Write the structure tokens for this entry.
Amino acid sequence: MTGDIRNEDGAVATAIGAIELPKSAIALDPQPAAPAVPLALRPTPRRVLVTGATRGIGAAIAQALAGAGWHVTLAGRARAALEEVRVTLPITEGLVHDCVELDVTDAAGVARAFAEVHAKGGALQALVNNAGAVETGPLARLPQDTWDRMLAVNLTGVFLCTQAALPPMLAARAGRIVNIASTAGQKGYAYCAAYAAAKHGVLGLTRSLALEVAPQGLSVNAVCPGYTDTAIVRDGVARIVAATGRSEGDAMATFSQSSPLKRLVEPAEVAATVLWLCTDAPAAFTGQAMSVSGGEVMN
């Protein structure tokens, strides 16, 4: 609900519920804003941290950024799996990519991991919030712990990592944050209520934060893949085959036929979009949700 409330001096202030909103960005940042330095003009190598980087979309994003000359920090829960990806990354100008163990649902662990990353190399120029998980089932029988887990991994993890990455970016007045959402955050799917709710939340977080940090030279965007050729989809196919006795090809069509392309999205196609957002997208491109879904979702 929107209404008017009075400040101490009697002036009318816009409010949502009982929350007073500043009249302009000046109320949030009273100091004159120094012009932000575009990422393209900053010294290389640029540093990026990718969460959920051990496989699928996360590993593809790490490959694309490393191939473009970025110093990549791979973040995930399993050090051995991170190292397996790290040794495959292309190396430019003698870069040594690194890894950090990180559970995005653990607030204290996130704070420690980002403190370690910042202590080693200072501000990140980009953060890619990719870590996520999918659990499905009819809402009427969905256990609350499944609901809580889906929000923790897919939404709260984005909040925690972004909050930890922001202070040095704000001080540097430059940075790119890319949140990997989903077409489930744009349209929803049956039996995916908890996952879809979390991904809708990611888009809300993206849009709100983009407005907050635009005056400081940061851009925040989301990428929304459709069904992508990853282990998550392959696991879903296996579950359909086990539960219904359908053939693997028939089960795979459940996912691939949702796209006008009649195929799954390739992880490299998502990674190419993330690379553009981190490197080449203009600063004015912020607060957007880019659907990489073969036309399944059109903004």
